[in-house]
Amino acid sequence: MTRLLHSTALRLALGYAALFVVSSLLLVGFLWWHTANYLDRETDAVILADAQAIADRLRDFGLPGALETVADRVAHASDEHAIYLLTDPSLHPLAGNLQAWPLSVGSQPGWYEIELEREGKLHETRGLFLELPSGFRLLVGRDIQDRVEVRSLILRGLIWASIVALGLAILGGFLLRRALLHRVEAINRTASAIVRGNFSERVPVRGSSDEFDQLAETINAMLARIQHLVERVRNASNAVAHDLRTPLAELRARLEDLARARPPAEAMHDEIEKAVVDIDRIIGIFNALLRLAEIDSGARRSAFRRVELSEIAAEISEIYEPLAEEKGIVIAPEISSGMAVEGDPDLIAQAIGNLVDNAIKFAPPGSQVSLCIAAGDQGMVRIEVADRGPGILDFERSRVTEPFYRSDRSAGTEGRGLGLSVVDAVARLHGGTLELKDNAPGLVAVLTLPLVEGGERSSPGRMPASVAT
Question: Which range of residues forms the domain containing residue 329?
Answer without folding.
Answer: 300-450
